[in-house]
Structures are given as structure tokens and as C-alpha cells.
Amino acid sequence: MLKKTRLFFTALFFTALCAFSANANVIITGTRVIYPAGQKNVIVKLENNDDSAALVQAWIDNG
């Protein structure tokens, strides 16, 4: 039982370390995107504040 508990907390610790390694180099200007019903597109400005390149993935859902 002690071995399983120790293994669980070790795995939890390393998972937490990975979760805190996120960077906020790419910033969206604004807090939301308003998409008018009559328009076919909308422009969203993203800004990269770091010297290295960044990859951004975006999607639209019905939720």
C-alpha cells in the first residue's frame, strides 16, 4: 500500500512539473472575438513577444 501511494505522489509531482512549464509568448489582442452574422471572415491579431517562432492552433466550435 505504501509503495502504491509513493508511486502515485511521485507521478503526481512530475505531472505538476510538466503542467507549470507553459509559456505565454503568443498573445491575442482582446479577450473575445465578435463574429457578425453577415460577414464571411473576421481578423484576429496575434502577437509573438518572444525571439523564437511559435506555432498556434485555432478552431471554431458550436459551444
UniProtKB/TrEMBL annotation:
Keyword Signal found: yes
Record keywords, A-Z: Signal
Any Pfam family matching the protein: PapD_N
Gene3D superfamilies tied to this protein: Immunoglobulins
UniProt cross-references to InterPro entries, sorted A to Z: Ig-like_fold (IPR013783), PapD-like_sf (IPR008962), Periplasmic_pilus_chap (IPR050643), Pili_assmbl_chaperone_N (IPR016147)
Superkingdom as given in the UniProt entry: Bacteria
Keyword Lipid biosynthesis attributed: no
A single Gene Ontology CC term: outer membrane-bounded periplasmic space
Domain named Pili assembly chaperone N-terminal: residues: 26-62
A biological-process GO annotation: cell wall organization
Signal peptide: 1-24
Protein name per its UniProtKB record: Chaperone protein
Organism listed in the record: Haemophilus influenzae
Gene: HifB
